[in-house]
């Protein structure tokens, strides 16, 4: 000190004393006011006066002292006036029941006690909160200047925090001493609330407002006086416990449901719980918890046992689908969408069910076939399992098989309708599920090896019947359905083949309406592209040109003048080879090798053919016409003279009929013109004179000699089946009510192929596929020059997807073939990459 | 060696060498007074022997590859001159029989040790073995060639320069048995070349673990692998190691 004596010091103002003297009165004033506020006696206080007091203190730089004094005051007040009340609330009983969960208390008791406790806490809090607000107002200047400058928590934060420190975090309560467990008041508070909520979940009515007050308190208190937003006690203390307790609650509930309830109850229960929890957050807890508690319910109540519920017999997903429980399905969809955006549990079962139902259709079909074929095969034929495979010998089984095809398509369409309805009504047209269902449909449809044929037959049947029984709108709906099925088919080339065959028969026999046919084809075109329908369009064009040709030829003959009355009227269809199915063009059955000698035409017809050919070549020299005798038909005017000896009845008069028969039928009938009464021709003789292939001739003779309405020939012996040794003679006694008679043309009925035919069709189709794949490989390699094996295979598959699903081994074989033919070579050093050789 | 010779190579000398190989028959075949453009089987065999190569085994192929023969029984002037000439340019081997002999001996020694060279001779042999008009090798010829190149203890001709076998498997034996059972057609170039590629792989991994049906192997090799598994020659990989199957791949 001595060394500092020579330093000059600033004069010390005697200010301290004055400040000190001024502080105490001001503080006394404030202290009294605070006491009044606590005692709810603030009415007589002057805000202005108090404000000035705190203002003065702060101005005299005594803020720190005031801050401390206020804090200490409040702490004392809290200790002396509030804590005793709180301590009184915490009874041993309360602790036992709420915290230690001692048994033996009714829920009513617990509720009463819990709510009483909550009320106590609420009242203390409300008082404290109000008082602290008022005091903070009075000391506003302190907060604004001193607290802010010194970066301390606001006085309000500190004083309101007393509640947290002294109540919630305290180990108070007379009863607490006996308990070994370490606990604070908050633990009791929390346990009481959770208990109340569980009571409400079990159906009791609780005081929601009261609970809401308490949670609001927790929301407005923070972990520290710094009041960090995420550190609200509600979030840090209460919510985790609440979620944990809820998890426990719902886990148990779910286990109980699995034991006791069915899937439908579970769905509704889960839905109700979700709503309840959302509502609870709004009314009782805090909306901050809404999403979190929802995910607890989702996880514990929905997800945990989802598979078990879905698999429940009688109420699970499968019966829901089967019995069209649309409400259940809707709820299920909503719930599953909450827990799994891929909805895989739903998807997997749904897909499996689609496939199963699809296979059931197939199975049912076999069973139906069995019974129908069994009933038809009454003539001693073995009606065992072979019935389905047995080659139809009579017309009936063939028709029934066709009917089976129609049934299959109808059933598939029905199944499709069913799932469409489920999809739109219950699954909100979910794209994921839609594509899953579509894939399953495609799976089972394509696993059924006759689907292409059946779909074509279905269209065939509808277009044929469309003329008579269906309105245009109905036919339209059918066409739409056919297109739907077509989309599922992967082997579109097979379909094309069958459709061509069926269409050819319809066109040549005038079985359908051309504008409906064109409509159908134009829809196919927009669905599958030009290449798919080019042949069909070619067929239409042939038909149109042929019509003009027929008319022109008739005019031409008329213009020649010397109209021969014996001249036959010709109606011709000139068919372009590539557009029409080989079955029609060759007129041969599938096994016919090479060109087969044509049948012998009667001279009248020969003359006509030559005349037309000459006319035809006039404008089109160089073309070749081949007469397809198996595809035509003829109107034959027949005269049956009166039968001698018959004076009454139709036989006593001469009868004239117009008989419509196949070309072969016409040729056969012409033979009998030259026959003397009573003479007959044997089958072999007829064949020798006509050169009609035996199977065709059998069918022709059968239609002329066994079908009663057109039995113009008599057969000896008069059995149903035509044999080589049978003899035929002219039926002089033929009578018919109708003048125009149509002999049934057996081949015009589109029917399901036999196994042999089918193999043949597949073989042809495979050949075509090989060429198509070759072309695709070359096209791709020409463009890419260099391509790895796997990429090439994938590219081929994707290019041909629209037509059929190429077999990978087949593609590989074709690539090998192209390697051998030196269209491609392997790249040196990387033998799995190919190079295109121009 | 003058500049001209360096550029043109020793073509004149080689032509003279070729003339010395020509026998009476060859001269007769060419016709009187005309230059002989090719020598026949007898002269060719004599030449191969004179080069120190065994005409009974692959050593003959080594010589034929050098002189660019297009069939076993004949050597052309063009192939002879061009072949040796390019070797002269690449390796500076002078155009005289003694040096040629040395070079051939070196090649023969090289054959089992240098896979790239082995492959070159192997692939060249395909052209030697097939009939000129055909695109594929007769199966019988191919079998003999395989014995020559890849012969194992079970082969009639004994060990080849690169026996196709691994620790536990006589692959060539299996391959021949398989072909006898399942293969009736001729052997096209791709099959010939890929057989060697496949053989190289089997000698490294005799479990056939490298194979996968999605790869670019010819169908006959795919069939062979399945046949081997069937016969217990190579065990199918344990389930799970193949991987990739059974997964429901989302393709929509």
Tell me what the structure shows.
The complex is a heterodimer of chains A (838) and B (252). With 838 residues, chain A is mainly alpha-helical. Chain A is built from 32 helices and 9 strands. Chain A has a 3-stranded mixed sheet. In chain A, α16 (344-376) packs antiparallel against α18 (395-425). Chain A is elongated, with a radius of gyration of 49 Å. In chain A, 31% of the residues are buried. Chain B has 252 residues and is an all-alpha fold. In chain B, strands 1-2 form a two-stranded antiparallel sheet. In chain B, α8 (115-129) runs antiparallel to α11. Chain B is elongated. Residues 239-252 of chain B have low confidence and may be disordered. Classes of the chains: A mainly alpha (838), B mainly alpha (252). The interface between A and B is medium-sized, with 21 and 15 residues.
Brief overview, please?
The complex is a heterodimer of chains A (838) and B (252). Chain A is mainly alpha-helical and 838 residues long.
Short descriptors:
heterodimer; A: 838 residues; mainly alpha; three-stranded mixed β-sheet; 9 strands; 64% helix; B: 252 residues; two-stranded antiparallel sheet; 12 helices; 2 strands; 2% strand; disordered C terminus
């Amino acid at each position: 000190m001595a060394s500092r004596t020579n330093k000059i010091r600033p004069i010390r103002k005697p200010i301290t004393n004055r400040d000190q003297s001024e502080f105490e009165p001001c503080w006394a004033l404030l202290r009294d006011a605070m006491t009044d506020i606590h005692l709810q006696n603030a009415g007589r206080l002057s805000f202005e006066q108090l404000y000035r007091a705190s203002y003065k203190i702060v101005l005299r730089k005594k803020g720190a002292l005031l801050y401390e004094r206020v804090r200490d005051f409040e702490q004392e007040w809290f200790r002396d006036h509030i804590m005793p009340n709180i301590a009184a609330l915490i009874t041993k009983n309360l602790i036992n029941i709420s915290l230690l969960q001692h048994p033996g208390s009714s829920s009513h008791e617990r509720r009463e006690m819990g709510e009483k406790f909550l009320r106590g806490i609420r009242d203390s809090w409300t008082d404290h909160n109000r008082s602290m607000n008022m005091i903070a107002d009075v000391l506003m200047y302190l907060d604004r200047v001193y607290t802010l400058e010194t970066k301390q928590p606001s006085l309000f934060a500190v004083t309101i925090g007393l509640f947290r420190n002294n109540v919630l975090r305290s180990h108070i309560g007379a009863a607490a001493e006996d308990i070994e467990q370490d606990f604070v008041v908050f633990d009791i508070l929390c346990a009481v609330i959770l208990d109340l909520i569980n009571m409400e979940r079990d159906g009791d009515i609780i005081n929601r407002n009261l609970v809401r007050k308490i949670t609001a308190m927790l929301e407005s208190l923070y972990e520290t006086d710094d009041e960090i937003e995420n550190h609200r006690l509600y979030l840090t203390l209460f919510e985790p416990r609440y979620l944990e307790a809820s998890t426990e609650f719902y886990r148990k509930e779910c286990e109980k449901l699995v034991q006791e309830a069915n899937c439908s109850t579970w769905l509704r229960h889960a839905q109700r719980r979700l709503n309840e929890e959302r509502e609870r957050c709004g009314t009782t807890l805090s909306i901050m918890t809404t999403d979190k508690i929802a995910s607890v319910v989702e996880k514990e109540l929905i997800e945990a046992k989802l598979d078990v519920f879905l698999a429940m017999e009688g109420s699970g997903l499968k019966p829901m689908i089967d019995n069209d429980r649309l409400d259940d399905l809707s709820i299920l969809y909503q719930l599953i969408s909450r827990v799994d955006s891929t909805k895989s549990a739903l998807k997997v079962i749904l897909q499996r069910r689609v496939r199963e139902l699809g296979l059931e259709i197939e199975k049912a079909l076999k069973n139906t076939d069995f019974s129908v074929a069994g009933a038809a095969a009454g003539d001693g034929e073995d009606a065992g399992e072979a019935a389905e495979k047995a080659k139809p010998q009579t017309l009936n089984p063939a028709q029934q098989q066709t009917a089976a095809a129609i049934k299959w398509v109808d059933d598939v369409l029905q199944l499709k309708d069913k799932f469409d309805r489920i999809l739109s009504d219950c699954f909100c047209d979910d794209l994921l599920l839609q594509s899953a269902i579509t894939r399953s449909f495609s799976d089972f449809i394509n696993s059924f090896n006759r689907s292409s044929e059946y779909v074509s037959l279905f269209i065939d049947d509808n277009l044929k019947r469309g003329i008579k029984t269906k309105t245009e709108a109905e036919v339209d709906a059918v066409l739409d359905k056919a297109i739907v099925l077509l989309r599922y088919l992967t082997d579109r080339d097979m379909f094309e083949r069958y459709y061509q065959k069926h269409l050819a028969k319809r066109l040549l026999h005038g079985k359908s309406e051309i504008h409906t046919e064109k409509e159908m084809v134009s829809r196919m075109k927009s669905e599958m592209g030009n290449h798919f329908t080019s042949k069909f369009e070619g067929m239409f064009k042939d038909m149109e040109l042929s019509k003009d040709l027929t008319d022109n030829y008739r005019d031409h003959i008329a213009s020649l003048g010397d109209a021969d009355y014996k001249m036959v009227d010709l109606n011709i269809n000139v068919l372009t080879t590539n557009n029409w199915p080989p079955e029609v063009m060759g007129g041969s059955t599938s096994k016919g090798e090479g060109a087969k000698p044509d049948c012998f035409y009667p001279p009248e017809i020969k003359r006509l053919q030559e005349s037309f050919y000459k006319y035809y070549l006039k404008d089109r020299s160089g073309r070749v016409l081949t007469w397809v005798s198996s595809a035509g038909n003829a109107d034959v005017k027949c005269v049956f003279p009166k039968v001698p000896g018959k004076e009454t009845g139709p036989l006593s008069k001469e009868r004239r009929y117009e008989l419509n028969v196949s070309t072969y039928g016409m040729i056969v009938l012409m033979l009998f013109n030259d026959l003397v009464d009573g003479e007959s021709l044997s089958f072999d003789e007829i064949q020798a004179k006509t050169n009609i292939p035996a199977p065709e001739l059998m069918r022709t003779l059968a239609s002329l000699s066994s079908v009663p309405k057109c039995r113009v020939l008599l057969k000896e012996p008069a059995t149903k089946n035509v044999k080589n040794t049978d003899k035929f003679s002219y039926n002089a006694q033929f009578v018919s009510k109708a003048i125009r008679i149509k002999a049934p043309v057996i081949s015009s009925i589109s029917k399901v192929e036999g196994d042999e035919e089918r193999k043949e069709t597949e073989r042809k189709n495979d050949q075509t596929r090989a060429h198509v794949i070759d072309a695709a490989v070359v096209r791709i390699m020409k463009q890419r020059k260099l391509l790895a094996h796997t990429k090439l295979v994938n590219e081929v598959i994707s290019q041909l997807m629209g037509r059929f699903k190429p077999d990978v081994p087949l593609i590989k074989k074709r690539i090998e073939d192209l390697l051998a033919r030196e269209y491609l070579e392997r790249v040196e050093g990387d033998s799995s990459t190919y190079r295109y050789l121009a | 060696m003058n500049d001209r010779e360096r550029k043109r190579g020793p073509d004149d000398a080689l032509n003279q060498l070729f003339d010395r190989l020509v026998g009476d028959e060859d001269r007769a075949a060419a016709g009187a007074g005309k230059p002989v453009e090719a020598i026949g089987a007898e002269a060719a065999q004599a030449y191969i022997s004179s080069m120190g190569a065994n005409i009974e085994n692959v050593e003959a192929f080594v010589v034929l590859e050098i002189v660019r023969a297009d069939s076993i029984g004949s050597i052309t002037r063009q192939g002879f001159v061009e072949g040796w000439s390019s070797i002269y340019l690449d390796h500076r081997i002078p155009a005289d029989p003694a040096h040629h002999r040395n070079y051939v001996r070196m090649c023969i020694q090289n054959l089992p040790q240098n896979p790239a060279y082995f492959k070159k001779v192997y692939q060249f042999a395909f052209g030697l073995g097939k009939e000129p008009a055909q695109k594929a090798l007769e199966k019988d010829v191919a079998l003999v060639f395989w014995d020559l190149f890849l012969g194992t203890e079970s082969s009639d001709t004994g060990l080849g320069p690169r026996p196709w076998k691994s620790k536990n498997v006589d692959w060539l034996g299996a391959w021949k048995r398989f072909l006898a059972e399942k293969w009736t057609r001729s052997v096209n170039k791709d099959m010939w070349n890929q057989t060697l590629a496949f053989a190289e792989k089997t000698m490294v991994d005799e479990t056939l673990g490298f194979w996968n049906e999605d790869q670019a192997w010819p169908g006959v090799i795919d069939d062979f692998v399945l046949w081997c598994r069937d016969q217990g020659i190579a065990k199918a990989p344990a389930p799970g190691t193949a991987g990739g199957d059974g997964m429901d791949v989302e393709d929509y």
